[in-house]
Design goal:
Layout: H1 3-12, E1 20-21, H2 22-28, H3 35-44, E2 56-57, H4 73-82, E3 87-88, E4 91-92, H5 94-97, H6 103-106
Parallel strand pairs: 1-2
Antiparallel strand pairs: 3-4
The protein binds a DNA duplex (13 and 13 nucleotides) through helix 2, helix 3 and strand 2.
Length: about 120
DNA sequence: CAGATGACAAGAT
DNA sequence: AATCTTGCCATCT
């Protein structure tokens, strides 16, 4: 299990119409205080994957503009809007769309339910 | 092998 | 309150 795989798994858990910050994803992936690794992981994600990378945003509630993906940052915004996310000044209300992960995940014991 | 970079976050000024 | 500086780990050159 590579470090990135864990991050991918977390992103896949993000429900429709909700978003998560890098710090949140990093925390759930076991990378406390290391959001950079999360960003790097998503950088390796291919459009072929089923990973809702567009649901991952920075702590400012805004989309990090980078020419790393098809099109541009506008694409991510469009995809989020398609999920019902309303943008406020190119930003979204984290207070309303921030994904609340289940406690089971926070314990870090999600993959193994035995023992 | 060592140095620099990176889709960020949190603390300090 | 906004902006700057530091820290963090993995990957790239």
């Amino acid at each position: 299990m590579s470090t990135y795989d864990k991050i991918y798994d977390i992103v896949r858990q993000i429900p429709y119409g909700q978003v998560a910050t890098y710090g949140q994803v990093a925390e759930l992936a076991g990378l406390f205080g290391k959001p950079r690794v999360v960003g790097y992981a998503l950088y390796h994600v291919a459009p072929d994957d089923d990973i809702p990378w567009h649901r991952v945003i920075n702590a400012k509630g805004e989309i990090s503009q980078s020419a790393f993906r098809d099109g541009s940052d506008d694409l991510q915004r469009v995809m989020l809007e398609a999920e019902g996310v309303v943008f406020e000044q190119n930003k979204i209300s984290l207070a309303r769309y921030r994904w609340q992960p289940p406690p089971e995940m926070i314990t870090g014991d999600d993959t193994k339910t035995d023992k």
